[in-house]
Design goal:
Layout lengths: L2 E5 L8 E7 L6 H9 L3 H9 L8 E8 L2 E10 L4 H14 L5 E5 L5 H14 L20 E5 L3 H26 L7 H9 L7 E5 L1 H6 L3 H7 L7 E8 L11 E11 L19 H15 L5 E11 L11 E3 L5 E3 L7 H16 L3 E6 L4 H6 L4 E5 L2 H14 L3 E3 L4 H4 L9 E2 L8 H10 L7 E5 L5 E2 L9 E2 L4 H11 L3
Parallel strand pairs: 1-6, 2-4, 2-5, 5-6, 9-10, 9-13, 12-16, 13-17, 14-15
Antiparallel strand pairs: 3-4, 7-8, 8-10, 11-12, 14-17, 18-19
Length: about 500
């Protein structure tokens, strides 16, 4: 992670400098100090560039004063708040990538927003380069230390501490989702989760023998075509009970298909490499649990990951098979590429029977249909509880991880009626595919407060965003951490 420090406002002796200027406002604070050092040159340069401080405006000056190699001036516009501050921090980090050190002048912002600038910069600075061995030095980002200049350093540091834990959770999720599938199979994924015990998480891993004893025929059916054995990972954070047995924890469940060929119902070759991130729901839950533990959240929480690989091996599940889930309900498998809901069915049942959770939120890259409906701008939200749904939507708006609530209903549920089993795993054609998938999952929640986030369109980005570089987004970590912080910490 980018090394971030907070310091009293003073012009840096080396590196880059970022100034944040409000719309139609004269330079103040550190900006005014620099203008004086430049004998009015800063104001003249901004006037010549037509810089008005509007949102999205930027101007770059090179070597404007001794020691300062690059000066970036960013317009703040008239919008304030944490979200705007994060975007400014992200823009600053991206622009200063060629500098070894940089300073952001946040002396005109409240302490919490100064910390948000740091958070945006840290999030944007992420890079997954574990497998780059021949990259030229000049092509690598150089920025290693960022100083946020603020007159409220103590308060800003205090605000930054829990944010840093969340950023680390985001980075864990991004790392997991970015890993190639020949490295991150279910067994390896489980091992990485076990390493999180260093944060104070209690981690248990169930193998094939334990899952078979629990009757998890739906999950095991998905995994049976692969040489890589499945795993069920359970992570517990007892932030309230503190050693005592936790009761009614909040519960998060992730689909973890470490690679999805589609099984016997095999996918087209084009773009199949993207299916390495069909475990993004599980990656998000792992990152969320690390964030909660890292910031010592005062909540009892449990995260469960159903980890499988869906392959067309000699023993692979066939279209037409009937499997018995852990709940005892039977499922006719019409399409082996509708596998994530089978995994979730058994994990959700286990969560209810074992932990009696206050509520459940599952996350899954479940359907291409949700991308058709919502593109890459919103995750699809399905829920049987209005309050839970409203809290998720609000947290998504606050963190920039937007969710759009989708319908559920009997008309959709009838589409998964099977002629020979309790249900089939797909509906009747392409129409409403994300909805019938959610209806399938709902059959296993036993009327517990539940929400399902279909993150197929938001788990991976093909372009850079203000605080998220191209690639794995870790969508859901910040959203759910915010929801817990605002509503469930006691």
């Amino acid at each position: 992670m980018l090394d971030i420090a907070f310091a009293k406002p003073a012009l840096p002796k080396a590196g880059g400098l970022v100034l944040l200027l409000a719309e139609e406002a004269a330079p103040t604070g550190l900006a005014a100090t620099l203008d004086a050092a430049m004998e009015g040159g800063l104001v003249r340069a901004l006037e010549a560039a037509g810089f008005k401080g509007r949102k999205g405006q930027s101007t770059t000056l090179w070597a404007p004063a001794p020691g300062i190699g690059k000066l970036l001036v960013l317009g703040m516009g008239k919008e304030g708040g944490a979200a705007a501050a994060e975007k400014l921090g992200g823009a600053a980090a991206a622009a200063m990538a060629s500098e070894v050190t940089a300073m952001i002048a946040a002396d005109g912002l409240p302490a919490a927003e100064a910390a948000s600038v740091a958070m945006g910069a840290a999030l944007r600075h992420y890079r997954f380069d574990r497998y780059r061995t021949t990259e030229k030095a000049e092509d690598k980002p150089k920025l290693s230390k960022l100083t946020v200049a603020t007159g409220e350093g103590t308060a800003a540091k205090a605000a930054w501490a829990p944010m840093k834990a969340v950023v680390e959770g985001v980075f864990l999720a991004r790392d997991l989702v970015s890993e190639p599938p020949n490295v991150l199979n279910p067994v390896e994924f489980a091992k990485r989760c076990e390493a999180l015990s260093s944060l104070g998480l209690e981690v248990d891993v169930l193998g094939v023998k334990e899952m078979r004893k629990l009757g998890m025929g739906a999950l095991l059916g998905v995994a049976q075509g692969s040489i890589n054995e499945p795993r069920l990972v359970v992570m517990r954070w007892n932030g309230l009970s503190k050693g005592k047995k936790a009761s009614n924890p909040v519960c998060f469940i992730g689909k973890g298909v470490t690679f999805d060929t589609g099984g016997i119902s095999i996918k087209p070759a084009g773009g199949m490499e993207d299916m390495k991130w069909d475990m993004a729901g599980a990656g998000t839950v792992a990152g969320l649990m690390a964030a909660l533990a890292g910031r010592k959240a005062k909540v009892d929480a449990v995260g469960l990951l159903g980890l499988v690989e869906n392959m067309p091996g000699h023993n692979a599940q066939r279209p037409g098979d009937v499997v018995t889930s852990a709940s005892g309900q039977t499922i006719e498998v019409i399409n082996t590429d509708a596998e994530g809901r089978l995994v979730l069915a058994d994990v959700i049942h286990y969560a209810i029977e074992k932990y009696d959770p206050k509520f459940m939120v599952d996350l899954a890259t479940l359907t291409g249909a949700i991308i058709v409906a919502l593109g890459h701008e919103h995750a699809g939200l399905f829920a049987n509880d209005d309050e839970l749904a409203a809290r998720i939507v609000a947290a998504g708006q606050a963190t920039g991880e937007a969710c759009w609530r989708m319908p559920l209903g009997d008309a959709y549920d009838k589409q998964i009626k099977s002629d020979i089993a309790d249900m089939k795993n797909v509906g009747g054609g392409r129409a409403g595919g994300s909805i019938t998938a959610a209806q399938f999952i709902q059959r296993f929640v036993q009327k517990k407060p539940w929400a399902h986030l279909d993150i197929a369109g938001t788990a991976w980005s093909s372009k850079d965003a203000p605080t998220t570089p191209k690639g794995a987004t870790a969508f859901g970590v910040r959203l759910l951490d915010r929801m817990v912080a605002e509503h469930y910490e006691g």
